[in-house]
Amino acid sequence: MRILHTSDWHLGKRLFKLDRGPEHQHFLNWLIQTLIEKKIDVLLIAGDVFDVPTPPHQSLEVFYEFLHRVSTETKTETFIIAGNHDSGLLLEAPSKLLSPHRIKVWGKLSPNHEDHWIKIEKEGEVLEICAIPFFRSYELLPQGEGDALVALKKYVTKIKTHPQLLMLHHLAGMYEAAGSEQVISLSGVESIPVEVIKSFDYVALGHIHKPQKISDQSYYSGSPIPLRFSETKSKSVIIIELKNGKMNSELLSIPLSRALHILKVSESDWKAKMAALEAKTPLTSMVEVQITLTAPRVGLIDEIKDQLEKQGMELLSYLPFYSQAERSEKRHEKLFELSPLELFEEFYKTKYPDSPEVPHELKDDFKNLLEKARHATSQT
Ligand SMILES: [Mn+2]
Description:
This protein is an alpha/beta fold.
């Protein structure tokens, strides 16, 4: 039995003015090919299918077009959980239409633990899958009291008669963030200890965009495309093989369809450094220029744009730094790339320069507010 693990597609996402749709389409075409070539029996999508709870209609179309292709062009079964960016109800809404097409969605936590377990059999191999969508503490603890971790353990614990796989959209173990993920604060669990999930033969995690191994058998597949300029590590999916009751996994790199380059230059070396950049990807490479200047220079940005255009690339972000004023400018360096929490921290620093650290309680309140605002639309 062969399983493919992916997550954090964030369909509908933009980077500045750039629509990521064409990159997502390249990935989805490649994924269909991979499901066929690698003879994948089970596709796992571990949450954050969409970037926002109410995605643009175009992103919905891309998603359902993809599911239709999986259903008609492959023999793969597809299992999907909602992430913190998704609306679980929106993902679950077409469940009855999807189930005859070998597609199952877990959008919300069910009070019945058994609803989250499914047993599949392929060529004599049996696998039990436990699928837990992103949850909030009031779903884990409907009475409003008790220990969230104890409640979670009840969902993920089952007497083991066959190999078991867990799919989860959460923070787990000692992870290394890519910087663009939200802290999952309304779940009642900060980060799931590895002990809770170690009985599984494989744990397919979603949420963190940087591919990584959390323990011997727990992995974040990471996002399929770089969501920010700073995500420079190559992207991948994970292929897991279940053979004779044993599971083995390996990374499979996703071809990069559009390069995002950060170019750190000065007034004197920008031309030379830019000339060394090569346009190698099928879609036009995008460049962020971080340039240190002694004084503002009229027309420089046009020169940079022209030069990039000649090389078949495009300027997407331009950040000039003035050497004398560098310290004060530095804080605004990545203003548009900051998360709402990071922006709040920046704001706090300017408001209270004498005690620039945001108090813990205030930070928690802000995170809670943020989560409530994000999901206001999906809960009404
Ligand atoms: Mn997430």
